Amino acid sequence: MRAASARAVLRRADWCMADTVLFELLHTEMVAELWAPDPDPGPGGQKTSLSVLESMGFRVGQALGERLPQETLGFREELEVLKFLCKDLWVAVFHKQMDSLRTNHQGTYVLQDNSFPLLVPMASGRQYVEEAPKFLAFTCGLLCGALGTLGFQSLVTASVTALPACKFQVVIRKP
Amino acid sequence: MAVCIAVIAKENYPLYIRSTPMENELKFHYMVHTSLDVVDEKISAMGKALVDQRELYLGLLYPTEDYKVYGYVTNSKVKFVMVVDSSNTALRDNEIRSMFRKLHNSYTDVMCNPFYNPGDPIQSRAFDSMVTSMMIQVC
């Protein structure tokens, strides 16, 4: 009985892990593809690639913002929407919760992830810090899109000081 | 069986509106438009009530002599409005709820469709056929 349930747990863990890896690999390829045609595009070209990644994330975020929230009207205020992003959205996409959420209660939120799954395979420390922003562009768009569907215009930026920890800063624009 | 089904965006313009008796289309458009006020009232009333579980299904918005109008709102403030024939007394509340749930699921599928731009009128044939299955059969 215990052997059977242990096997079932292992199988589920394998399936969960395979799930995460698939998205990570796809994301890595996406970034590589956008950078490949022009390995040194200069500041203008880089910006286009970053905005393409962000707009892809935005569209995905819009769709997730429609599909993920639960069957009840749970979002009474901004903070609840941000908590939804940190818990439900992050778990759905990255299989873990955001590590910390801070706010100044005036529309600015800092979401911190101490081991961001898309950065974990790269390095653990300061190596590749300059390359990290292009791997965060899609996720910034994702947050922006999800917030957009749930009714908030926002500006999302990401910063990395030491992989794999990263911070996403969300500024909600007042209408 | 509904007589008219409409999907309204959060900015209160219609993304999709379809009614069966073709000749009275304008009347249904007008009914849906006036029901938006009632929807907004219900949403703000729910916001003030300190109920933890607020429902997506809004229930009967208002009855007229020939028709009843039901509403449903999603977390992204997209509203579904359904006009039902009053004479059809066989339709119960939980049937209406299940029709709205199907609408919501189909709308979510439309949102996830990469060929659909959020904010555009819905042109998905799959969504169309789902709505047709819910509309009244008029010969």
UniProtKB/TrEMBL annotation, chain B:
InterPro entries, per this entry?
Longin-like_dom_sf, Sedlin, TRAPPC2L
A GO BP annotation? endoplasmic reticulum to Golgi vesicle-mediated transport
Q: Entry's Gene3D superfamilies? A: 3.30.450.70
Q: Which GO terms describe its cellular component?
A: cytosol; endoplasmic reticulum; Golgi apparatus; perinuclear region of cytoplasm; TRAPP complex
Q: Where in the cell is it found?
A: Cytoplasm, Perinuclear region; Endoplasmic reticulum; Golgi apparatus
* Signal peptide extent: none
Q: Which UniProt keywords apply?
A: Cytoplasm, Endoplasmic reticulum, ER-Golgi transport, Golgi apparatus, Transport
| Family of this protein | Belongs to the TRAPP small subunits family. Sedlin subfamily.
Q: What does this protein do?
A: May play a role in vesicular transport from endoplasmic reticulum to Golgi.
Its quaternary structure? Component of the multisubunit TRAPP (transport protein particle) complex, which includes at least TRAPPC2, TRAPPC2L, TRAPPC3, TRAPPC3L, TRAPPC4, TRAPPC5, TRAPPC8, TRAPPC9, TRAPPC10, TRAPPC11 and TRAPPC12. Interacts with the heterodimer TRAPPC3-TRAPPC6A.
Q: What is this protein called?
A: Trafficking protein particle complex subunit 2-like protein
